[in-house]
Amino acid sequence: MAIPENVMTNDDMAAIVDTTDEWIQSRTGIKQRYIASEKESTSSLGLKAAQRALEVADVLPAELDMVIVATSTPDNIFPSTASLIQAWLGANNAGAFDLSAACSGFVYGVNMASQAIRSGSIETALVIGTETMSRILDWQDRSTCILFGDGAGAIVLQASEAEGGVLTSVLRSDGYGGDLLCVPSVGSLDSTSANGHKFNKMYMNGSEVFKFGSRVMTESIPQVVAQAGLTLNDISLIIPHQANQRIIQSAARHLKLDESLFMSNLENYGNTSAASIPIALCEAVQQGRVKQDDYLVFVGFGGGLSWASMVVRWGVPKPEEARGSFVNRQRRQLSYIFAFWRQRLNRFNRRMDEVVNRVHPTRGRMIRLRRKIERHPLE
Description:
single chain, alpha/beta, Peroxisomal Thiolase, Chain A, domain 1, 2 domains
């Protein structure tokens, strides 16, 4: 996982909008959140989380076959944030794409990667949930700006003969509720607003989304557990999307489960959208709440309206044992360094080509032709 350096407490929030620490905590359970600085981005946070995940898994960038980034706040419309991270890692053998399913995106991404592995088309995948929600918030709207924070989390999935990993998933969507949680963007019919909402700023009908989240968590958890041939008594930990503590409490109450069965770190991070489940998973592992062969449930919900749940049988080394070999650690660092200088060199060459083309158009064409011949010599 990776989080920004800047912390914004509820008291800090109260200096911006009409609210108080007591009001926020009583209604959401949030005490603070992390906010990205001007030097941090969705891709830079995702890159840090990705590098740490590769270190824990002791996987080289060249071994990756696929990079999936779940995000609602990409650096660009295109290229994808996944492509940027793939290049910075030096994962030259990997395909890369962004997945947009709002706060459900991480579970969708893990499902896509696991299905690709089971089909035999790939062996190793990197799935990242990364967000800078602060960039799309209306900081005058206290109903939304108090809820969200920035951060990233990542996991590595690998093919294995051993039983375990992702056992079953339930992915669902109800597009009829799309107007309840949205961010109008360049494709909106009205470039300045959509249905009266601000362009490029989040709008949320809080009460309706609250009811939706409580309902789908209560319904989808038993559904996905039953599909895995298990009962709720078999589940060691439920890691839900960290949206609101009262939603988690409502789900626990309706399912007649102890609230301690639900992982919650909402008070420290707020709602980090697609990053919330992997961040919570990382902290659960660090706290020793996840053990070998434990059955876990991931459940997310958000804009779309979308929701997703998943049962995972955990099977990785303990944190103190999951340290990459010295040789592979050095190889990863070399991959990052080589990728950095390769990008710098490519950009330099493109700028030089532009200069030559402006000054000597014919010479510029000859240079390009020579490079093409050098890359593909005649046999």
